[in-house]
Amino acid sequence: MRQFVCETPLDKNGLLVLEKKDFHYLRNVLRLSVGDMINVRIENSSEKIFGANMTICKIDDARKKIVLQKCAEISSEASAKNFGEKNSCALNTKYFLFQFLPKPQKLELIVRQATECGVSFVVPIVGKYTQGGCEKTLQNAARYERIVREARQQSGSAVETKILPAQNLDAALEFWRRETCDFSAQEKRALVLYERCENTTAFGNAIFANGSVSEKFDLKKIKACALAVGCEGGISPAEFARLLDAGFCGVHFNTNILRCETAALYGMAAVQSLIEN
C-alpha cells in the first residue's frame, strides 16, 4: 500500500482534508483516484504520531482539495514499523551529516538527498570558508520542514530527519559527543571527507575495526555513523585537525573533484552501502 506523511490532523468525523502541496503530491505524483487506499502517517505537535489506513473519498480538482476517510487506525509503533518494513530505509545505524554550510540552494539539495538516504541529523556548520550570510537561510525553518516532509513522502523514509541550527565546529562536535557518549568505540564511526591526501586513509580502513577489512568485523555493531563534508571552499587545515582530534577519520576518495552537494551524497551512499549491506 502506498504511504504518505503529513502534519494535518483529522477532523472530528475522521476525515483528512488536504490541499495545496499535499493535494499536488497525492493527485499528480501518486496519481490517486477516488476509492484508492493509502497508509497515512500524521506527525504534529497535537497528535504526535498517528497512523491510519485511509481511502480517498472525494477529489475536487477545481478547488484543489482531496478528502480522505479513516478506515482503520494503527498504533504509532505499528505505523513506524509499517513504514520501516515496507520501505528500503529501515536502517540498522543512525546517520549524522555534519555539513559545512554551502550556498542556500545547494544546502536545500543536500537536505533533500540526506532525507531520502535516511539521515537522522543534518548539522550545518559555519566554517572558515562558509560565505557570509549563508546561515540566515536556516531561519526559514518552515521551508526546510517542507523539504524534509516532501523528501520523506517521495522516498518513503521511516527516519524523521532533523535539521539542527547553524553552529560552529566545536558545538557540532559536542553534539556528536553527547549523542554517542554511551557507545563503545566499536559502536560508532566518524569520517571526514577531505580534498587533500595528507592524514587520510582508505575508506574501508575508516569503517572497519582496527583498520583491517580482513578481520571481518560485524558492521551491524555500528550504532552511529557521522560524515563531515566541506562547503564550496572545502575544510580548512585547522578545522580538519580539530575533527581528527575529536576522533574523526580523514578519508580521501580517489575520484574526480566533487562539488560539495555531490560529495555529501556520494559519501553517505558509500558509507551506507558498506554498513547496511
Cα-to-Cα separation, first versus last residue: 25 Å
Count helical runs.
8
What's the average pLDDT? 86
Approximate shape:
elongated
Structural class: alpha/beta
Main beta sheet, described?
6 strands, parallel
Q: Keywords, please?
A:
elongated, five-stranded mixed sheet, single chain, 8 helices, alpha/beta, 11 strands, 25% strand, 277 residues
What would you say this structure looks like, in words?
- By secondary structure, this protein is α/β, with parallel strands linked by helices.
- It has eight helices and eleven strands.
- Strands 8-7-6-10-9-11 form a six-stranded parallel sheet, with helices on both faces. A five-stranded mixed sheet has the order 1-3-4-5-2.
- Helix 6 links the parallel strand 9 (188-193) and strand 10.
- Helix 3 (104-117) runs parallel beside helix 8.
- It is elongated.
- The model is unreliable at 83-89 (pLDDT under 50).
